[in-house]
Amino acid sequence: MRIDVVSIFPEYLAALDLSLIGKARLQGLLELSVEDLRRYTTDRHRTVDDTPYGGGAGMVMKPEPWALALEDVLERGAAAPGPAAPGAGTPPGERPVLVVPSPAGEVFTQAVARELAEREHLVFACGRYEGIDERVVDWARERFEVRPMSLGDYVLNGGEVAVLAMVEAIGRLVPGVIGNPESLVEESHSDGLLEYPVYTKPALWRDRPVPEVLLSGHHGRIARWRRDLQLRRTAARRPDLVAALDPAALDRADRAV
Ligand code: SAM
């Protein structure tokens, strides 16, 4: 998978050199590059923003540098080796996905992460100030599949933090990035529920014992206990997730435990 990020703070994305995503980059499973939007400005002050038409507080990101940056990213993506090779490019006929982080976007979920993990080329456009001139999004629709994406119902100062979260959530689903793919199956949001609580040694810590069933070695009882805790925890913390589940599918999954 190829990932391009465009930002006025490229150093913000340095965290993507670390941990499993950094390792996946070294292994060639993810080809990630970060571009400084100011490189695509043409004036002496490297200006990327201007006052909003119609008035109001704050500044808006100018369209010109964005178009030049995105055209450059597209060109480099097209020149990348084909998807069969490490450091894949976009297969013919598939447009790259342009993710535009925005509190006014569709909420980024595990389902979206799964969907985007299947794609060959993702481009992230980090907004700042009051956001990017809307015409960039319209223009980009002719070249990309555009996905305005929100991390949640709150406002960040810029898209970089959202991109760190999204790239990590997507990148860990790319085959080979997580050593044991089983750990992607039994985790929160994989089946619409939250994960059960987890424990490690010692069995007794500060007068708090590990739940006895986990020491029983009885796989059936452990699975039942975990399932019950998943259901209870999800109902208590995220009733919206329980309401969104198909009751028949929930029953079937429950009987299978
Ligand atoms: N004026 C915008 C609005 O009210 O929708 C908010 C702009 S915000 C201060 C600046 C940038 O931060 C946005 O362009 C976006 O890139 C990013 N951002 C802020 N909140 C976000 C969120 N919840 N999810 C994703 N990106 C966000």
TrEMBL record:
GO cellular component terms attached to this protein's record: cytosol
Q: What does the record give as EC number?
A: 2.1.1.228
Task: Report the record's Gene Ontology biological process terms.
Answer: tRNA N1-guanine methylation
**Class of enzymatic activity (EC top level):** transferase
Q: What InterPro entries does the record point to?
A: Alpha/beta_knot_MTases (IPR029028), tRNA_m1G_MeTrfase_C_sf (IPR023148), tRNA_m1G_MeTrfase_TrmD (IPR002649), tRNA_m1G_MTases_N (IPR029026), tRNA_MeTrfase_TRMD/TRM10 (IPR016009)
Q: Which subcellular locations apply to this protein?
A: Cytoplasm
The UniProt record lists the keyword Protease = no
GO terms assigned for molecular function? tRNA (guanine(37)-N1)-methyltransferase activity
Keyword Cytoplasm applies: yes
Keywords of this entry: Cytoplasm, Methyltransferase, S-adenosyl-L-methionine, Transferase, tRNA processing
Q: Where is the tRNA methyltransferase TRMD/TRM10-type domain?
A: 1-242
Task: From the UniProt record, list the reaction(s) this protein catalyses.
Answer: guanosine(37) in tRNA + S-adenosyl-L-methionine = N(1)-methylguanosine(37) in tRNA + S-adenosyl-L-homocysteine + H(+)
Residues bound to S-adenosyl-L-methionine are 127, 151-156
Highest rank taxon of the organism? Bacteria
Q: Which SUPFAM superfamilies match?
A: alpha/beta knot (SSF75217)
Q: Which CDD domains match?
A: TrmD-like
Enumerate the transmembrane spans. none
Q: What is its main location?
A: cytoplasm
Database matches in Gene3D superfamilies: 3.40.1280.10, tRNA(m1g37)methyltransferase, domain 2
Quote the HAMAP family the UniProt record gives: TrmD
Q: How does it assemble?
A: Homodimer.
- Annotated function: Specifically methylates guanosine-37 in various tRNAs.
What protein family is recorded?
Belongs to the RNA methyltransferase TrmD family.
Give the protein name, as stated in the record: tRNA (guanine-N(1)-)-methyltransferase
Name of the gene this protein is made from: trmD
